[in-house]
């Protein structure tokens, strides 16, 4: 009976060791997968940030164009429609001043 009991204990120990090795491998692979997911999320957030930043910069530059136009500091070229509106505005307002 003693021999059978010892064999059972060693078998149980070896099963436990094998199971714990498998669990460690699973944990490591799960951690690696989690790290890869986090890296992917970070890259997505980073690319979204860059896209949003480019959009914000372009909208700021168009707003700053209007401000700079008012102060005659034209840092960027105006579009044709903007130039036409500016000329029409000047023509309407300046002609009233000249004819007074």
Unreliable sequence segments: none
Number of strands: 0
Classify the beta-strand content into a percent band: under 5%
Structural class: mainly alpha
Q: How far from one another are the termini?
A: 125 Å
* SSE order: HH
- Number of helices in the DSSP assignment: 2
Radius of gyration: 37 Å
Helix content: over 70%
- What is the count of structural domains? 1
What general form does the structure show?
rod-shaped
* Biggest sheet overview: none
Average predicted local confidence, pLDDT: 65
List the helices and strands and how they pair.
Blueprint lengths: L1 H69 L9 H19 L2
Structural notes for this entry:
The structure is a single chain. With 100 residues, the protein is an all-alpha fold. The protein has one domain. The termini are far apart. 0% of the residues are buried.
Keywords:
mainly alpha, 0% strand, 100 residues, single chain
In short:
The protein is built from 2 helices and no strands. It is mainly alpha-helical and 100 residues long. The relative contact order is 0.04.
């Amino acid at each position: 009976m003693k021999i059978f009991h010892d064999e059972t204990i060693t078998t149980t120990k070896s099963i436990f060791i094998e199971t714990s090795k498998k669990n460690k491998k699973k944990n490591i692979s799960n951690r690696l997968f989690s790290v890869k997911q986090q890296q992917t999320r970070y890259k997505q957030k980073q690319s979204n940030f860059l896209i949003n930043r480019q959009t914000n910069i372009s909208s700021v530059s168009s707003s700053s164009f209007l401000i700079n136009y008012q102060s005659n500091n034209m840092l960027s070229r105006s579009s044709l429609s903007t130039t036409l509106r500016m000329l029409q505005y000047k023509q309407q307002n300046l002609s009233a001043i000249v004819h007074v």
